[in-house]
Amino acid sequence: MLVQKQIFLLGFFLAALAVGSLSPSEGEQKKENAIRHVHDPCIIRQGDYYYVFSTGPGVLMRRSKDLIHWEFLGKAFDEDVPEWAKTEVPGSKALWAPDISFRHGRYYLYYSVSTFGKNRSVIGLATNRTLDPASPEYQWKQEGKVVESFLSSDYNAIDSNVVPLSDNQDALSFGSFWSGIKLVKIDSRTGKPAPGAPLVSLSQRPSPNAQEAPFIARRGGYFYLFVSFDTCCRGSDSTYNIRVGRAKTIEGPFVDRDGQSMMAGGGTPVLATKGRYIGPGHCAVLQEKGRDVLVNHFYDGESKGIPTLQVRPLRWDKTGWPDAGPPIE
Fold this sequence. Notes:
The protein has 329 residues and is mainly beta. The chain has a single domain, classed as Glycosyl hydrolase domain, family 43 (Tachylectin-2, Chain A, 5 Propeller). Helix content is 9%, strand content 43%. It has helices at residues 2-19, 26-32, 83-88; strands at 42-46, 49-54, 60-64, 70-75, 96-103, 106-113, 121-128, 141-149, 161-164, 169-174, 181-187, 200-203, 211-219, 222-229, 241-247, 268-271, 277-288, 291-300, 306-316, 322-324. The strands form five sheets. Strands 1-2-3-4 form a four-stranded antiparallel sheet. Strand 6 and strand 7 (121-128) form a beta hairpin. The radius of gyration is 18 Å and the shape is globular. 44% of the residues are buried.
């Protein structure tokens, strides 16, 4: 247990160093096409633009018309951390691992608030009518706390993702290390669970439990659970890699291509380190008519391990399993 705790503390400490570099200068953004200093991206489309949100003070925003040329828009929120969240999690400095969805005429932006090495964490929510900062309707409304974990909990309430289930109900998955990936049903309008709503376990690995960042996509009668194995946030020494399992129901059981349960450490490889693309992970899937794309960050081995945005086509074989294609560049 002591070794496991030390691993947690080291990983989160190194992550803190990474977060501190996630607010790029204007010059850096112009020079690097706004793809540098991106951690934990999520993606959605509104009109002609794709919008990416990522970890950083106030949640960082970018947009693109072609998934290649990106414009840095700055912070989604004026505050680095909303006041309510500072009260819930003293010492929090930035907002982690956002998730974006569109329901009932509003955009739902979830984010995580925590401190390194601890699982006193909360997932918060803000809503908006539009993602275009130039629109007169652009105004984020803080909706407060969605779920939380405590130092006594056996899970960690960060790294959220929402998947629609019906007109009135969605599912929120989340989790990092500890006892793995959890899921709770939420109201699709409030974006929050009913009081006392049960948590369901979806995926878990043996100690040191290096698994986090769930994303669930639906395709061909299956729910596909993407997760990130191993360690992020160590630059060129990162070992992150993306795995997947699938199930007929949102609550599982999720199994990999070989039939191994994800509750027993299973997970079919989707994307791993290759060449300069080190430690790819914390992915999101954008499903459009005619194509799916995988969005993730990686650590650029040719640029001092800087966390960098990457977009790839997500291909599906005849048996219904996904594979990441070459980067869209």
